[in-house]
UniProtKB/TrEMBL annotation:
Annotated GO MF terms: ATP binding; protein kinase activity
InterPro entries reported for this sequence: Kinase-like_dom_sf, Prot_kinase_dom, Ser-Thr/Tyr_kinase_cat_dom, Ser/Thr_kinase_AS, WD40/YVTN_repeat-like_dom_sf, WD40_PAC1, WD40_repeat_CS, WD40_repeat_dom_sf
Keyword Cell membrane: no
Name under which the protein is recorded: Protein kinase domain-containing protein
Species of the source: Rhizoctonia solani
Alphabetical UniProt keywords: Repeat, WD repeat
One family name in Pfam for this protein: WD40
Start and end residues of each Protein kinase domain: 291-527
WD repeats by residue range: 16-57, 59-100, 126-167, 214-255, 257-287
Length: 532
């Protein structure tokens, strides 16, 4: 048995090779530290995800294909169902079979699941389907169970009585041939993979279809699985691809995964929701980094701020303006916005927050993607780190501003809230120049509303009607800050006096008398030398 790792633009793909025939089923352990797979070769493999290796010897006992494998809620047991008509339990610590096999009343067992309390796998006969049962799963309350069959029906069962229920309704039929189903984590929705190349979402309470078919696959949808938060669905298909779907938009997320070379029979989400495992006719088990679900940090009526990750773990911040809002922009605003995004994309300086890209995010919305700064903005950073080197931070902010001014880019809204601090304490200028987006869209959102005290950074000439922002108004803002506490005792401090004079020059009512950003940098360096 072996594993190999391949890289793509977004991160690492892990490929496990050990099975000799089709991998019919894959499942993550509850803690996400291991993965189990069942195969047509009659074996079960447990893959250690922390060390990227499989067991030296596969678990053997079944005499025909292993169609379904699953972990118990605590992860101490694995249940397997096989075409040999038996269900077996395996100890995940000793890797040995537990007790005797349970023989089903039929000549095959296609699916197995544990009850939510971990009391044991479901193995009691439930009669009602007229073809193979592809999938069984308990509802969260443990009193009911859902099953999907090749007879194109989905049934809900009363576990104690072994009969179909009327609430929620049972026996609803799907057109297109049901090949797989999955139950959402909260039990409210059912995803069905169909032979007509689509997925359908159903309300588990009423059986009513939700939205339109999910289209994209080019052959049978053989397996579906919900993400732990119920927001996404992974699907595997006879077209050799794995795809991710967002149930909020009904659309596909990103590009398909093309790592397999044959039919994809099983997909499974990791407990953390950041990885998708798949098993295929090619005999491989593949773990893809998947798509990390972006999380809305703050929402507003016209736009939102999201936090997310790339596949390689890089944390992202996404400022999104909804399409419905963009549609209301006039042509001039749209042109200006495009120009401003283009300007930001060309800013390459260690003290300027870099634009990583532009994307369509949930909604749909137009989002500007940049790196997430874990230390937050300068205002938050000062509160958490009161003893930080103010002179160094101020000098670096001036460097970033000088870089922008050298390229004839005006920030226009320089203040502590628009200066982000990286994990290593480096200030980065952000939210600059976006008159098109900021004023027409983002200014209306909760996260971009004008903060109390913003007027403090506004140069006096900007209060005049028709005034425009300039490099000199940026310098005024750079010189502003909080009013210092009155000292109890005055001490001689020549560098401090020089710094005060420098700040006073930034506040000059005559913009032409204010220093440039480059002149500021020179003065700061001189003050620093005298301090040393």
């Amino acid at each position: 048995m072996s594993s190999q790792e391949t890289s793509n633009l977004f991160g690492e793909v892990i490929i496990y090779e050990g099975h000799k025939r089709t991998v019919r089923s894959v499942a993550f352990s509850p803690k996400g530290s291991s993965l189990v797979s069942g195969s047509d070769d009659g074996t079960i493999c447990i893959w250690d995800l922390q060390h990227s290796s499989g067991l030296p010897k596969p678990l053997k006992g079944h005499t025909r294909s292993v169609n379904s494998v699953t972990y118990s809620p605590l992860g101490s047991l694995i249940a397997s169902a096989s075409f040999d008509g038996t269900i077996r339990l395996w100890d995940t610590n000793t890797f040995q079979q537990v007790g005797e096999s349970t023989r089903t009343p039929f000549d095959h067992a296609c699916s197995v699941t544990f009850s939510p309390d971990g009391g044991g796998p479901a193995s009691k006969p439930f009669r009602g389907h007229s073809a193979y049962v592809h999938f069984v799963s308990f509802l969260p309350d443990g009193t009911r169970m859902v099953s999907g069959s090749g007879d194109n029906t989905i049934h809900t069962w009363d576990v104690q009585r072994g009969i179909t229920t009327t609430s929620p309704p049972s026996g609803y039929q799907l057109e297109g041939g049901v090949s797989s189903i999955a139950l959402s984590p909260d039990g409210s929705q059912i995803a069905a993979g169909l032979e007509n190349e689509t997925l359908r979402l159903l309300d588990a309470r009423s059986g009513v279809m939700i939205g339109k078919p999910y289209s994209g696959h080019t052959s049978f949808v053989l397996s579906v699985a919900f993400s732990p938060d119920g927001t996404y669905i992974a699907s595997g298909s006879d077209d050799q691809t794995v795809r991710i779907w967002d149930i909020r938009t009904g659309g596909q997320v990103g590009e398909p995964f093309y790592e397999h070379t044959s039919d994809v029979w099983s997909v499974s989400y990791s407990p953390c929701g950041t990885r998708v495992a798949s098993g295929s006719y090619d005999g491989k088990v593949i773990i893809d980094p998947g798509y990390n679900s972006p999380i809305m940090v703050v929402g507003g009526p016209f736009g939102d701020q999201w936090a997310g990750k790339l596949r390689n773990g890089t944390k992202l911040a996404i400022r999104a303006c909804r399409a419905s809002t963009i549609e209301r922009f006039d042509e001039e605003t749209l042109k200006r916005t495009v120009q401003e995004v283009n300007v930001w994309s060309k800013m390459k300086h260690k003290n300027v927050h870099q634009l990583l890209g532009v994307a369509v995010v949930q909604g749909p919305s137009l989002g500007m993607i940049s790196g997430q700064m874990e230390n937050g903005n300068l205002h938050e950073y000062m509160r958490k780190h009161p003893c930080f080197d103010r002179h160094q931070i101020y000098s670096q902010i001036a460097l970033g501003l000088a870089y922008m001014h050298q390229r004839d880019v005006i920030h226009g809204d320089l203040k502590a809230l628009n200066i982000l601090i990286s994990s290593d304490g480096v200030p980065k200028l952000s939210n600059f120049g976006f008159t098109g987006i900021s004023e027409a869209c983002l200014v209306h959102t909760d996260f971009a509303v004008m903060q109390p005290g913003s007027a403090r950074w506004t140069a006096p000439e900007l209060l005049l009607e028709g005034a425009i922002k300039t490099k000199k108004s940026d310098i005024y803002a750079l010189g502003m800050g909080g009013v210092p506490n009155r000292p109890m005792e005055l001490k001689a401090n020549e560098p401090g006096d020089q710094m005060w004079e420098l700040l006073m020059s930034c506040w000059d009512k005559d913009p032409s008398s204010r220093p440039s950003a480059r002149e500021l940098i020179g003065s700061l360096a001189l003050i620093s030398t005298e301090e040393g």
